[in-house]
Write a structure and sequence with these properties.
This protein is an alpha/beta fold. It is built from 13 helices and 13 strands. Strand 2 (about 25-30), helix 2 and strand 3 form a beta-alpha-beta unit. Helix 8 (about 215-225) runs parallel beside helix 12. The structure holds NADP nicotinamide-adenine-dinucleotide phosphate. NADP nicotinamide-adenine-dinucleotide phosphate (NAP) binds next to helix 1 and helix 4.
Length: about 325
């Protein structure tokens, strides 16, 4: 049995689909009632709780051999600070996992996690990694870069904002850089880590083949949307304050503090990191944008272009 925490989220939804298709016994740990109902409707076993609550996690871990720990947050709301959710939540989960004799824990951290990080989201992921390393349980720590895919926390809100706003806002005068990774490619790595233990005991950076600036992403989106909004650069401190404000006001803000922290850190890695660790080449961002935007263009603009096909799977046959 595999327990997936944060199973109702962006990565979790992709992973659950892949595990179900592969016929793997899986239990989803979710927080909201709506995620719980949706997952149960898909005939996946689910339990509903917060990993940071005082209630016991033992029942969720009964009979579990492997855990994929995805539960996390990109914004701090109320008592749910980055440190509480990432560090304390991970500690509580691992204590219960130890009691249940779990054989393997896979933690999704973030590219660039390190002890000296000042950005709160990234620092909290490093602290959570420390909990995993010190747990005494066999582990794999995956450090993906910013992820893109249907319903992501980065391209989807950015595209929505670009469509609505007369301007294209760019945080910072310095060139924020990133190396985005297709969510389906992360899930392919996870399937290998679960199936044959590839990477057990290691900390593995995972990123796409392109290193790109925030402005570069805006350019790719504008090209695909056939728009040319004038660009406005915001001082990074103003962008950070606006982000804080918007994430408190809106259920789905255009940017969150956690995502902005990833951009500000500007972590990049080997362009062949995924190939080296898991043996396949991930999807370039430009291809992902073409795929993602192909079905939600107005029909008049879609004419003559290919309809959106099934998400490409670049994992080689095994
Ligand atoms: N997306 C990226 O670009 C990216 C990049 C690098 C690393 N990561 C990491 O990958 C993991 C998955 O990311 P994601 O994009 O799938 O995030 P997501 O869509 O926000 O999903 C996170 C899930 O965790 C749940 N959660 C949050 N706090 C919880 C708590 N206290 N108890 C139980 N569940 C809780 C959330 O539930 P609610 O919906 O109820 O809040 C949500 O379902 C995260 O750890 C993230 O830090 C993501």
């Amino acid at each position: 049995m595999i327990l997936v925490t944060g199973a109702g989220g962006f990565v979790g939804s992709y992973l659950l689909k892949r595990l179900s298709t592969a016929g793997q016994p899986v239990r989803a740990l979710v927080r909201s009632r709506s995620d719980f109902e949706r997952i149960r409707l898909a005939s996946v076993a689910a339990c509903r709780l917060e990993i940071t609550d005082a209630i016991s996690l033992d029942a969720a871990l009964e009979g579990v051999e492997q855990v994929v720990h995805l539960a996390g947050t990109f914004r701090e709301l109320g008592r749910g600070t980055f440190d509480v959710v990432h560090q304390n939540g991970t500690r509580r989960l691992l204590q219960a996992a130890k009691g249940a004799n779990v054989k393997h824990v896979i933690y999704i951290s973030t590219l660039g996690a390190a002890p000296d990080r000042i950005y709160p989201y990234v620092r909290s992921k490093w602290l959570a990694e420390g909990e995993v390393r010190g747990s005494g349980l066999p582990f794999t720590i995956l450090r993906p870069s910013l992820l893109f895919g249907d319903g992501d926390r980065f391209l989807t809100p950015l595209t929505r904002l670009l469509r609505k706003s007369p301007y294209a806002f760019i945080p910072g005068y310095e060139r924020l850089r990133c190396q985005p990774l297709w969510v389906g490619d992360l899930v392919s790595c996870l399937m290998r880590a679960l199936g044959s233990g590839v990477g057990k005991g290691e900390v593995i950076p995972l990123a796409g083949p392109e290193q790109i600036t925030y402005e570069g992403v805006i350019d790719l989106l504008q090209k695909r949307l056939e728009s040319s909004r004038p660009k406005i650069r915001l001082p990074i401190s103003l962008a950070a304050s606006l982000t804080l404000l918007l994430e408190r006001m809106l259920r789905v803000p255009p940017l969150t503090s956690g995502i902005l922290d990833i951009w500000r850190l500007g972590a990049i890695t080997d362009r062949h990191a995924v190939r080296k660790a898991y043996g396949f080449t991930p999807m370039p961002l430009s291809e992902g944008i073409r795929y993602l935007l192909s079905s939600d263009e107005p029909p008049s603009r879609r004419r003559g272009r290919k309809q959106r096909a099934a998400a490409p799977d670049r994992t080689p046959e095994r």
